[in-house]
Every structure is written in C-alpha cells, then in structure tokens.
Amino acid sequence: MADIQLTPKDILDKEFKKSFRGFDMEEVDAFLDIIMKDYATFKNQVNYLESENARLKAKIDELSQQSQSRPNPITATGPTPAVTNFDILKRLSNLEKRVFDDRLQD
Question: How far apart, in whole angstroms, are the C-alpha atoms of residue 69 and residue 86?
C-alpha cells in the first residue's frame, strides 16, 4: 500500500482553486489521476488477496482431507491406559532391582 497517495480524508477535504469558469480543470484532472492510480492499486491488492485467500482455503481443505484419510494411531490400537510419572518410576525401580539383584548374586 506504499503507492497509495490519498486517504479518504484527503479526498473529502480537497478544495480546488476557482477560475473564471469554475474550478481549475488541470488541478481537478491531476487530482482525479491520483485517485485513479490509488483505485487501481487497491484493485490489484484486493485481487491478489482474494486469490491468496482462495489458495489458502484450498490448502486447508487438502490438509483436512489428508488428516481424515489417515488412521489415528491412538484410536487404531485401542485405548491406552493412562500412564503417570509414578507408574514409570515404579517400573524403573523394579527393573533396577532385577538388574542389580542379578549382579549381586553372581
């Protein structure tokens, strides 16, 4: 949007110099040229953003279909029991006892 020269307030507040037959035609034409360039820039940006929006929506649909077609590893193997840190520590302790008890007996 760096090419945009006018804000809505600029357009609203614009006052033209009056000449013998009304406003100075060259000044009005120059101002309208700037407005036309701004509108062309806005139109290009809107077109780009609309195409980018459509591309991103298509990508979302594609990824959604891919995720739905893949089996969920958690549900595919059935429910897993909840494992807590306490359970892991208990198992580790039991393994250590077996390993060290076997070494002590040898």
Answer: 36
Block residue for tokens 């990824």: 63
Residue with tokens 């006018």: 6
Taking only the tens of pLDDT, the chain with its 106 residues reads: 557 787 778 887 888 777 777 878 888 888 888 988 888 888 889 899 999 999 999 999 999 888 888 776 655 555 556 778 888 888 888 888 888 876 666 5
Assign 3-class secondary structure to the chain.
CCCCCCCHHHHHHCCCCEECCEECHHHHHHHHHHHHHHHHHHHHHHHHHHHHHHHHHHHHHHHHHHHHHCCCHHHHCCCCCCCCHHHHHHHHHHHHHHHHHHHHHC
